[in-house]
């Protein structure tokens, strides 16, 4: 399960998407996250899948690495689908037993929610796989610069985000090492019920927390020894500048989601093509 977590992990390669400005990638990802909630039909979900497929192919990121992020939340996805199936009472009843009712609209809504959450995870994974934590931090700091007018600690917020992203892979690696060490001592994490498995993971939490605090203290000492003073008089080795790649990607994304928003806004006027909305 831990190996399925791809958030915060960077896949290094030389691709069109990797060379894009991190600020543009972040804005386009946010646009994608907003736009996916305007998708109301399986047909348009198919267009979104094609869009993601094109982005993944251009980014030259292994499809296996992207799908691993979805596998990491498969339990949450299944729980969401089950809740939407049994609690949505609209539409024609397909099956019922006592107070449990399954309708056609409930199945459709659950399927759409499953696709929506899956595409959200895939889109965010593509962002983190193609952008280093440092570039992502600089992008957040640059986009939030206007908030300095109201004395919002932009640099400190970006630093916290950067440290969080950089700690995720190391914590995953340390957790895996602790689990293998416990298994070598006879611990069992793979059998038994949910309660038994949860209890089996308790001995892992203490050394993991101790190791996390130790890493945080070492990082704080390293920053203090280098006279780190936050946002005061800081410069950057590499200045981010938008290029023609960012323009092409922005046009492609804006045109695609403009079509999605248009279909959503005019869904009541185009009754002839009802297949777009069901």
Labels describing this entry:
mainly alpha, two-stranded antiparallel sheet, 2 strands, 278 residues
Fraction of residues in helices?
Answer: 55-70%
Overall radius of gyration? 23 Å
- How is the quaternary structure best described? single chain
- Unreliable stretches covering 5 or more consecutive residues: none
Note the total helix count: 10
Shape: globular
State the major sheet: 2 strands, antiparallel
DSSP strand count: 2
Mean pLDDT metric = 79
Order of helices and strands: HHHHEEHHHHHH
With strands numbered from the N-terminus, the spatial order across the biggest sheet is 1-2
From the N-terminal CA to the C-terminal CA, the straight-line distance is 35 Å
Sheet/helix structural class: mainly alpha
How do the strands and helices of this protein lay out in sequence?
Blueprint: H1 22-35, H2 42-59, H3 63-71, H4 74-87, E1 93-97, E2 100-103, H5 104-130, H6 133-143, H7 154-184, H8 194-200, H9 202-225, H10 244-265
Antiparallel strand pairs: 1-2
Can you characterise this structure?
It is a single chain. The chain is mainly alpha-helical. The protein has a domain at 2-131 and 243-276. 64% of the residues lie in helices and 3% in strands. It has 10 helices and 2 strands; from the N terminus they run ααααββαααααα. The chain has helices at 22-35, 42-59, 63-71, 74-87, 104-130, 133-143, 154-184, 194-200, 202-225, 244-265; strands at 93-97, 100-103. It has a two-stranded antiparallel sheet with strand order 1-2. β1 (93-97) and β2 (100-103) form a beta hairpin.
């Amino acid at each position: 399960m831990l190996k399925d977590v791809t958030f915060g992990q960077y896949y290094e390669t030389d691709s069109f998407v990797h060379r894009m400005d991190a600020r543009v990638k972040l804005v386009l990802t946010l646009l994608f996250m907003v736009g996916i909630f305007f998708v109301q039909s399986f047909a348009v979900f198919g267009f979104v899948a094609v869009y993601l497929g094109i982005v993944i192919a251009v980014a030259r990121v292994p499809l296996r690495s992207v799908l691993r992020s979805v596998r990491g939340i498969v339990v949450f996805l299944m729980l969401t689908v089950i809740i939407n199936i049994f609690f949505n009472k609209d539409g024609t009843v397909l099956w019922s037993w006592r107070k449990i009712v399954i309708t056609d609209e409930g199945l459709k809504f659950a399927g759409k929610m499953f696709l929506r959450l899956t595409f959200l995870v895939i889109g965010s994974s593509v962002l983190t796989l193609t952008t280093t934590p440092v570039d992502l931090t600089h992008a957040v700091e640059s986009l939030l610069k206007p908030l300095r007018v109201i004395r919002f600690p932009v640099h400190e917020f970006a630093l916290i985000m950067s440290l969080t992203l950089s700690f995720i892979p190391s914590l995953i690696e340390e957790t895996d090492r602790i689990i293998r060490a416990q298994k070598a001592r006879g611990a069992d994490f793979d059998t038994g019920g949910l309660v038994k498995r949860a209890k089996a993971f308790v001995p892992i939490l203490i050394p993991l927390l101790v190791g996390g605090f130790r890493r945080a203290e070492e990082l704080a000492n390293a920053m203090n020894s280098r006279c780190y003073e936050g946002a005061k008089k800081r410069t950057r080795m590499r200045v981010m500048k938008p290029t023609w790649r960012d323009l092409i990607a922005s046009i492609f994304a804006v045109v695609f989601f403009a079509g999605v928003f248009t279909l959503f806004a005019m869904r009541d006027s185009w009754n002839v093509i009802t297949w777009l909305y069901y």
